[in-house]
Write a structure and sequence with these properties.
The structure is a single chain. This protein has two domains: 163 residues, Beta-lactamase (3-Layer(aba) Sandwich); 131 residues, DD-peptidase/beta-lactamase superfamily (Beta-lactamase). Helices cover 43% and strands 10% of the residues. It has 13 helices and nine strands. The chain has a five-stranded antiparallel sheet with strand order 3-2-8-7-6. Strands 1-9 form a two-stranded antiparallel ribbon. It has a two-stranded antiparallel sheet with strand order 4-5. Helix 2 crosses helix 3, helix 5 crosses helix 8 and helix 8 crosses helix 9. The longest helix is centred in the middle third of the chain and has 16 residues. The mean pLDDT is 93. The chain binds 6-diazenyl-5-OXO-L-norleucine. It comes from Paenarthrobacter nitroguajacolicus. This is Glutaminase. GO terms for molecular function: glutaminase activity. It catalyses: L-glutamine + H2O = L-glutamate + NH4(+).
C-alpha cells in the first residue's frame, strides 16, 4: 500500500491563519443564527434513550490552535459522544502501534455502506475496512493497551479526557440503554472473531466500545478535542501533548475519507475538511493548523449526521476560508520568473 513516510524527508505543513478574533466570534454566532430555524432530519431512536433528546438544542463552538474559544447557542450542553469517540480511540491506538500496523489491521478505505453494515465485512473477506465504521472501531478498541477490559476502558477515558482537557464522565443511562439493545454490534464483533480479526473476547470489546460511545461531551469539548488534532497533538487549552503530530495527520486523513460514512465524499466535496459525526447529534470538524469546530444538534440526516451541525460547519468552512482544496489564482504581477 501507499506510504507517504519517505525516509529522510521532513514532513512540511500547510500554512495560513484564521481571520481576527472578533470576526471569527461574529461568524460563529452567524453560523448559529442562520441555521437555528431549520427543523430537517430526525432524532436517532435505535438506542432508546437517545429518542428523548431535545431536538431544539443547537450549539456551535470554534477553538483556535492558540486556545481562543468562540461559542454560540447550547455549546456547553452535554450529550453522549457516540461515534466521534472512534476518531480519538483510533488516535490512541495509532500512537501505541504506529501508522502501518493499524492501517494493515484495521484499514483506511471507505466501505460506501452504513456505519453498522454487516455486508461490508462479508464483501471484504472479514476485513474491518476502516476505524470509523463499527467493525473497524470494535477491532480498534480491542487493540487498546490494557490487561483487562477495565484497564482498556480506563485508558480510553483518560486519553479522551486529555484530548478534551477535562475529566469526561460516563453517561450511565446512555450506556445501559445501548448495552441492552446493541445486538447488532455483538453480531459484528462475533463475525470479526470468526475471521480472526479481533484479538480479545469480542463481547468484552463491545462493552468497552459501548462505554466509549457513552462519554459525555459538549460542543465546546468537541472543538477542543478537534483543535488538539489541528495542533499537532497538543491540547491548545491545557498545553498537554496528547499524541504525536504524525498520529494527528493519520487520524485526519481517516476522517476525511470515512468520517461521515457513505456521505464522506459529499461532505469532503462541500466542506473540504476532515469531520466525524455521532448519532446523538455531535459533529466534530478539524481545520489542520487552524482550529477545531464542535457542533451539536440532535436531528440527523438518513446517514446519521447532524443536519444543523453540517449546515453551520459548511457556513464556517466557507466564510473562514477553511476548505483545504480551495485556492486562488496567484496575482500575475507576483508570478515567479525563475526557470529551472
Ligand atoms: O455503535 C453504535 O451504534 C453507536 N454507539 C455509535 C453510532 C454512531 O454514532 C454512528 N454515527 N453517526
Amino acid at each position: 500500500m501507499l506510504d507517504s513516510n519517505v525516509e529522510g524527508v521532513e514532513q512540511s505543513v500547510s500554512t495560513g491563519s484564521l481571520p481576527g478574533w472578533e470576526q471569527v466570534d461574529s461568524l460563529v454566532v452567524a453560523s448559529h443564527t442562520r441555521n437555528r430555524a431549520c427543523q430537517d432530519g430526525a432524532v436517532a431512536d435505535y438506542i432508546p434513550v437517545l429518542a428523548q433528546a431535545d431536538p431544539e438544542l443547537f450549539g456551535v463552538c470554534v477553538v483556535e490552535v492558540d486556545g481562543g474559544v468562540h461559542l454560540a447557542g447550547d455549546a456547553d450542553v452535554e450529550f453522549s459522544i457516540q461515534s466521534i469517540s472512534k476518531a480519538f480511540v483510533y488516535a490512541l491506538v495509532c500512537e501505541e502501534f504506529g501508522h502501518a500496523a493499524v492501517a494493515d489491521l484495521v484499514g483506511v478505505n471507505n466501505t460506501g455502506l452504513a456505519f453498522n453494515s454487516v455486508i461490508a465485512i462479508e464483501l471484504n473477506d472479514g476485513h474491518p475496512m476502516n476505524p470509523m465504521v463499527n467493525a473497524g472501531a470494535l477491532a480498534t478498541t480491542a487493540l487498546m493497551p490494557g490487561a483487562t477490559p477495565d484497564e482498556q476502558w480506563n485508558a480510553i477515558r483518560k486519553g479522551l479526557s486529555a484530548f478534551a482537557g477535562r475529566e469526561l464522565e460516563l453517561d450511565q443511562e446512555v450506556y445501559r440503554s445501548e448495552a441492552a439493545t446493541n445486538t447488532r454490534n455483538r453480531a459484528i464483533a462475533r463475525l470479526l472473531e470468526s475471521y480472526g480479526r479481533i484479538n480479545r473476547d469480542p463481547l468484552e470489546a463491545v462493552d468497552v466500545y459501548t462505554k466509549q460511545c457513552s462519554l459525555r461531551v459538549s460542543a465546546r469539548d468537541l472543538a477542543i478535542m478537534g483543535a488538539t488534532l489541528a495542533d499537532g497533538g497538543v491540547n491548545p487549552v491545557t498545553g498537554q501533548s496528547v499524541v504525536s503530530a504524525e498520529v494527528c495527520r493519520d487520524t485526519l486523513a481517516i476522517l476525511a475519507a470515512n468520517g461521515l460514512y457513505e456521505r464522506s465524499g459529499e461532505w469532503l466535496f462541500e466542506i473540504g475538511l476532515p469531520g466525524k459525526s455521532g448519532v446523538s447529534g455531535g459533529l466534530l470538524t478539524v481545520s489542520p493548523g487552524k482550529a477545531g469546530i464542535g457542533a451539536f444538534s440532535p436531528r440527523l440526516d438518513p446517514a446519521g449526521n447532524s443536519v444543523r451541525g453540517q449546515q453551520a460547519t459548511a457556513y464556517l468552512s466557507r466564510v473562514l476560508g477553511l476548505n483545504i482544496f480551495a485556492s486562488q489564482a496567484y496575482a500575475p504581477s507576483e508570478r515567479s520568473t525563475n526557470v529551472h
